[in-house]
Amino acid sequence: MAEPLLKIAGADVFYGASQILFGVDFSVEKGQTMALLGRNGAGKSTTFKMIAGLAPPSRGEVRLAGETVSGKPPYRIARAGIGYVPEDRQVFPEHTVDDNLIVGAKKGPRGDAHWTTERIYEVFPILAGMKTRLAGRLSGGEQQMLTIARTLMGNPDVILLDEPSEGLAPIIVQAIADLIRRLRDMGVTIILAEQNMHFCLGIATHATVVDKGQIVYRATIEELRHNEEIKSRYLAV
Ligand SMILES: Nc1ncnc2c1ncn2[C@@H]1O[C@H](COP(=O)(O)OP(=O)(O)OP(=O)(O)O)[C@@H](O)[C@H]1O
């Protein structure tokens, strides 16, 4: 069987002398939307930083499309096809929505240029109505969408979304959920880090649960939905 698109194998991460991740192991197949779930401080953001090269593993590895990417600098990992959207939205506030997208434009690792500004505006109609607005003037939810859109403009193989619903009003959370569902249905491979399992239930296809820096559960999202023990033990629901 072919190797999964993204494979994390036995990864340990330390911050100074403290070990944060312990032998993290999971895989994501092309087209999956994987929810990476866990409580506050469980290790979700560190897992993303490890994949993106900002917190490299001291043991174990990250493989993308059969190639080892861990150990490379973050810009090389991004170029290899990992699109990372961190928790704090990162737009260029003094530039327009359109320019923010153009700055993110680059061919994917295999030369594909699937995402163009036209395509983005079809999928993100809210942004289409504000092309010339300065990004710093957008609401938090709009900035979140712009950050996701700009990352897609780099034509990544997989996109890592760190708590995209955090701190947003319920109606905006709904709009972000609809957007991620649309990307899922287009076949974009997504990892969605969330504390909020309910946000993920209608979006994700698969689930991986992290607790105290270790992976404690991997299943389809439907299996998780019915697993009361895992939900109450690790997700406080
Ligand atoms: N720069 C750092 N130095 C030392 N410890 C850190 C650092 N960043 C995070 N940690 C610790 O690593 C552990 C995992 O944090 P992480 O941010 O990965 O969790 P998380 O699951 O993403 O939680 P959150 O939902 O709060 O973002 C926590 O115990 C945290 O205190």
UniProtKB/TrEMBL annotation:
GO terms for biological process: L-amino acid transport. Keywords: Amino-acid transport, ATP-binding, Nucleotide-binding, Transport. It comes from Enterovirga rhinocerotis. InterPro entries: AAA+_ATPase, ABC_transporter-like_ATP-bd, ABC_transporter-like_CS, BCAA_Transport_ATP-bd_LivF, P-loop_NTPase. GO terms for molecular function: ATP binding; ATP hydrolysis activity; branched-chain amino acid transmembrane transporter activity. SMART domains: AAA. Belongs to the ABC transporter superfamily. Pfam families: ABC_tran. Residues 6-237 form the ABC transporter domain. This is Amino acid/amide ABC transporter ATP-binding protein 2 (HAAT family).
